[in-house]
UniProtKB/TrEMBL annotation:
Assigned keywords, A-Z: Cell outer membrane, Membrane, Receptor, Signal, TonB box, Transmembrane, Transmembrane beta strand, Transport
Cellular localization per UniProt: Cell outer membrane
Annotated protein name in UniProt: TonB-dependent receptor
InterPro entries: Beta-barrel_TonB, Beta-barrel_TonB_sf, CarboxyPept-like_regulatory, Plug_dom, Plug_dom_sf, TonB-dep_rcpt-like
Length: 778
């Protein structure tokens, strides 16, 4: 495999040298951009071809020049502060092409993607977006699985049904998810609490891997996941899309329907309605079924936009609901049983296929509602007001010995209200953000909740400025946040049992206050026409969550017993990211080199000397610790097109190193080194079929050797290789299109485990999976 890879890379660069000498890629694109209303030229707009790292900007007279371009079709995008994004397909054939583009300022109406993109996007941080093909190949998967298409994004799994995104080694509350412009607020403190989001609601899935606390407040130490809607088609009364996805592993079926349009009731009103459903049974490894791993989902959303003379009013609502089984083999009855299961490495029981979901399981619903108003005073100044409401209802069930299994062991109701006000003028933004959050444990479970009831109040203010110079851009930002935390619940007093050795409970009440300053400083500098450098340093912080402070009990979803520390302090992190983007003819390269120091880093460490026996069984113990930590690594990806762009080779590589610098020891649950590569062959089109391609992918994950031998219940699993095959085509039907995608994942049906799976002690990962995805656009 290594010899083949070296040969392929050598061939790739040899072809690149030959192509460079060809006169085919010597075309020139010259153009100008004007304001559609004033007909005046616009300075400082960003011009890109095919979302490449190469870009140029318009001069004082609105002109731009791009040289050494190959003859073919391109998607040209034009972006700039105060103007709507402009995207159009152009074709360059020979010599020089001269074009003029007209863009509209956002003082009349502006699309959500543009507004939120400008608030979210840091020009000194690279934002990575899933391509349309990557999204098509992953339809039906959960949000976290889809994001792994991007270098540096991995998974923290709890079995086959629950995954959380990991960015540069950090996860959970250090990864902020911005869903439709609203901070996603659920019970994300749990390692087995997946984001309660339907990816079908997002037109664009993006990841920014820098510390962005200035824009979004506390918690964004690792980065930000952005889900934004695509632009509503307002040219027709009704358009839509239907998706049907079938998979063999789990015999699952997923469907999605989306309708949109405008002028249906009121000319200024545009709308979008969407609903999706999923049903899947027990998953299977290469050798055996995993019992009780079925999933059911039913979701819907609605988006309504009303254009005003100087702004826009927008309302959004969505509901996500799921029921998912937790692998039954992770729950043991005695200490000897759990140790035997870990030693065996696979379940003792034999399971068959079933769609039934029994205890242990999770039932979760998440409702999000948003009301937003944008007002534009002038082309260079605007005010955005947004109110958000979220309700997260989580119920976790387990096999019970006294009460019925239909009574949840944990029943938590979290309500969050947010209010954001952002004023933008020229290249500056000023904002106020406030949050009121209340968590209540619903009575009647017959158990002591793992986390107490709490009230969480936050208030933040920020300012960000961009300073454009002749050939570089500087960004500076500052923010202050205050958080008040009030809790009431119960804890076990293990240090003082009664005369019979019985551990007693006591009432816990506590109030904590946290506050901190965040900052950002960055630069974007084009070193040459082919090479761009972006550097950003971000200071972020995070207050300890309720489970880290006060948990003392069985976490049913993960099958672990967790013990918190009420004396934990806030995490404070400084992350420095350097991005290098290079483009030369058909070669594109991205590389992010980063380092992050986190003071008082909080982590749950497995305690192999402790196993806690409860009335519901025996479980491994995880305790929370706090130390200073250092993270650093690199994410790199490259793509090269050859044979007249019929063949595309892509490769991604990521590594992260993390250590407890107080004790000079390794931290647990840090992703091991990963390499992904693909070879895609674009087939010729004809009158019947278009967008035809075949693709073979290879993923390599190394064994995690950077761990402390006596700090875990089992050694990290070995390295593994995975192969997958993809094929896609599109069938035009009059003005509509039927897209078909076929895939075989884990092509060789490999039996393997992943270090980042918290159930790796008891079971293996998924075996071969065959999928068929059909999308009909009308």
């Amino acid at each position: 495999m290594h010899k083949f890879l070296l040969l392929l890379i050598g061939l790739t660069f040899a072809i690149g040298q030959n192509k460079a000498q060809s006169s085919a890629c010597q075309l020139t694109l010259e153009g100008s951009v004007i304001d559609i209303s004033s007909q005046k030229p616009i300075n400082g707009l960003s011009i890109r071809l095919n979302d490449s790292v190469y870009s140029t900007t318009t001069t004082q007279d609105g002109r731009f020049l791009i040289e050494n371009v190959c003859p073919r079709k391109y998607v040209i995008s034009i972006h700039g502060i105060g103007y709507e994004p402009f995207v159009e397909t152009i074709e360059l054939k020979n010599g020089k092409t001269v074009l003029q583009f007209s863009v509209q300022n956002n003082s009349i109406a502006i699309e959500e993607v543009a507004v939120q993109g400008k608030q979210a996007e840091s020009k000194t941080l690279q934002t990575y977006r899933l391509s349309e093909q990557e999204k098509a190949e992953r339809k039906g998967k959960n949000l976290s699985e889809q994001l792994t298409a991007l270098a540096g994004v991995t998974l923290l799994s709890t079995g086959t049904t629950i995954q959380k995104p990991v960015i540069n080694g950090l996860h959970s509350q250090r990864v902020l998810v911005l869903n439709q412009g609203v901070r996603q607020e659920g019970q994300q403190w749990g390692a087995e609490h997946a984001p309660e989001i339907d990816p079908f609601t997002a037109g664009y899935l993006e990841v920014s891997k820098g510390a962005q606390a200035v824009r979004y407040g506390a918690d964004a130490l690792a980065g930000v996941v952005l889900l934004t809607p695509s632009k509503i088609d307002t040219t027709k009364i009704l358009v839509g899309q239907v998706d049907v996805i079938g998979i063999s592993n789990g015999r699952g079926l997923t469907s999605n329907v989306q309708l949109e349009g405008n002028r249906f009731f009121v000319p200024r009103l545009s709308w979008r309605l969407q609903a999706s459903a999923k049903k899947q049974g027990n998953s299977k490894t290469a050798d055996y079924y995993l019992g009780n791993t079925g999933v059911e989902e039913l979701n819907f959303s609605g988006l309504f936009q009303y254009a005003l003379p100087k702004g826009k009013l927008e309302a959004y609502i969505s509901r996500f609901s799921t029921s998912m089984g937790i692998f039954a083999g992770a729950h043991a009855s005695t200490g000897e049983d759990i140790l035997a299961r870990i030693a065996n490495g696979r379940p003792f029981e034999t399971y068959s296929f079933s769609y039934d979901i029994g205890a242990p399981k999770q039932e979760v619903s998440h409702t999000l509602a948003k009301l937003k108003y944008d007002h534009h005073f002038s082309p260079n100044s605007s005010l955005s007001l947004q109110y958000g409401f979220q309700q997260n209802h989580r119920q976790e069930y387990d096999v019970r010995r006294v009460e019925s299994d239909d009574v949840p062991m944990a029943d938590m109701l979290l309500r969050t209200q947010t209010l954001d006000a952002i004023y933008a003028i020229s290249n500056y933004k000023f904002g106020l953000q406030g949050t009121i959050q209340i968590n209540n444990n619903v009575p009647g479970t017959g158990t002591t909740p793992i986390i107490p009831n709490f009230d969480n109040h936050t208030l933040g203010a920020f300012a960000i400025g961009e300073f454009q110079r002749k050939n570089y851009l500087i960004e500076l930002g500052l923010r202050y946040d205050y958080r008040y935390f009030d809790v009431a619940g119960y804890r076990y007093d293990y240090a003082n049992p009664d005369e019979n050795g019985v551990v007693q409970q006591y009432l816990l009440t506590d109030q904590r206050q946290f506050h901190n300053v965040s900052g950002t400083a960055g630069i974007s500098y084009p070193i040459s026409e082919r090479l761009i450098w972006k550097s950003n340093a971000g200071l972020a912080w995070r207050a300890p969550s309720a489970n880290e402070l006060y948990s003392d009990g069985l976490h049913h979803g993960s099958g672990t017993y967790e013990i918190g520390d009420p004396n934990l302090k806030s995490e404070k992190g400084l992350k420095w990211v350097n991005h290098f983007g290079y483009q030369w003819n058909r070669l594109q390269v991205h590389a992010d080199v980063y380092g992050q120091y986190i003071a008082d880093y909080i982590y749950a460490n497995p305690d192999p000397d402790s196993i806690r026996q409860t009335i519901r069984g025996t479980f491994p113990v995880f305790t929370f610790h706090q130390n200073n930590a250092l993270f650093y690594g690199i994410d790199a990806q490259a793509r090269y097109k050859f044979l007249q762009e019929k063949l595309i080779y892509s490769v991604q590589f990521s590594l992260v190193r993390a250590k407890n610098i107080d004790s000079n020891t390794f931290l647990p649950y840090i992703p091991s080194d990963r390499l992904s590569q693909s070879l895609q062959w674009n087939l010729s089109e004809n009158n019947l079929l278009t967008k035809n391609y075949l693709k073979l992918t290879h993923d390599y994950v190394s064994q995690q050797t950077r761990y402390e031998p006596e700090s875990d219940y089992a050694y990290p699993p070995g390295a593994y290789h995975l192969l997958a095959f993809h094929a896609g085509t599109s069938l035009p039907i009059k003005q509509q299109a039927l897209a078909i995608h076929f895939a075989v994942e884990n092509l060789t049906n490999n039996l393997y485990k992943d270090y980042m799976d918290r159930f790796r002690y008891y079971a293996h990962q998924l075996g071969r999976n065959i999928s068929l995805r059909i999308t009909y656009n009308f």
